Amino acid sequence: MSDTKSYDVAIIGGGVIGLTIAKEFLEKNIKNICLLEKNRDVMLETSSHNSGVIHSGFDATPGTLKAKFNVEGRHLFEQRYLKKDAKFHWENINSYILAFDDEDIKELNLLYEQGIKNGLNPKSMQIIDNKEILKVNPYLNKKIIKALLVNTSKIIDAHQFGNFIFEEAKKLGLKYHLNFKVNDIKKEKNEWVLKSEKDQIIKAKYIINASGVWSEEIARLVEKNPLFKIKTRRGQYLILDHDQRKYTTFDVFFLTPSKHGKGVIIAPLLDGRVLVGPNAEDNIPKNDIQIVTEKGLKHVRKIGKKINPNIDLGRVVSVLAGSRSINELTNDYYIEKSKEVDNFFHVAGIQSPGLSSSPAIARYVYKRYTEVKK
């Protein structure tokens, strides 16, 4: 144990949340920190298996952390990262939420009002009619009645972004341990002792649990009754060949959101291909969250065809499945210090819009850390 590495802060989880937290701390001169990731590399799970959309912030329930950090996070993306010389690919896009009936139109009006409450500029949103939406893309379903246009969305290559943050953090002095799956945490005097399944050991004065779908398991290593409960939601996607871009525009088209999330979308990928998905499947075993099934893809094809009947959903070049970490107790983010032990902080239930929220979450976690240190 004499050569065991000791840190001020250990961050468990090498997704976009853990990485942005690490970079935020290092930029604020908290240098003796480490990142622990159970996989062979960072950004291999939820953080890179998504659409890459930086959402505007109109659909999160006002007053929630999701709403607050989505809008703040988008602004921070714009201020810090979305520059002409960015080291990752990104583009401005419009989002269109599509209404097919009167109930959908009610939802559009609700989303518009929510956007205002969440701090969006009213000039960035407008409800347009059938003729206007078909001018945008004449290949869309002719049965679309209205659409909510939001013009402040972005799209990024999420994997490139995460690796950019990782490289920047390493330049600032980040220490990291890959293939370090934490399976035991104990307190020794004033330090936490974290042990991996391979019997690797590190020590840290403070732990930040940013382990995604595994955050409840990590919490239960130190707490009897965590104040959040994680269920997994799997979303499956089709990726279509470049030749299907002729039926799409450089915009994102959504069905109205459901209780399961933002709904299936058709979106451009930055490499020229087209993304369709995701579906939403709850309570999937954690070891199956990246497994693609024909049943799930069948649903994606059905909804994709509803949005755009002309697109050829047989022109599939790839498929993928991503996981979502859902806090069952609130359906909101849980970002709190432990109520049972000292110097332990949870960043859990970070579902969509987690990518959009990540810079704001990192800033907030640093603020809370400094409060605890005082």
UniProtKB/TrEMBL annotation:
Boundaries of every FAD dependent oxidoreductase domain copy: 8-365
What Enzyme Commission number does this protein have? Answer: 1.1.3.15
Which keywords does UniProt give here? Oxidoreductase
Q: Give the enzyme's main class according to its UniProt record, as a single word.
A: oxidoreductase
Q: GO molecular function terms here?
A: (S)-2-hydroxy-acid oxidase activity
The record, for Pfam families, names:
DAO
Database matches in InterPro entries: FAD-dep_OxRdtase, FAD/NAD-bd_sf, G3P_Oxidase/Oxidoreductase
- Judging by the UniProt lineage, the source's domain of life is Bacteria
* Protein name, as recorded: L-2-hydroxyglutarate oxidase LhgO
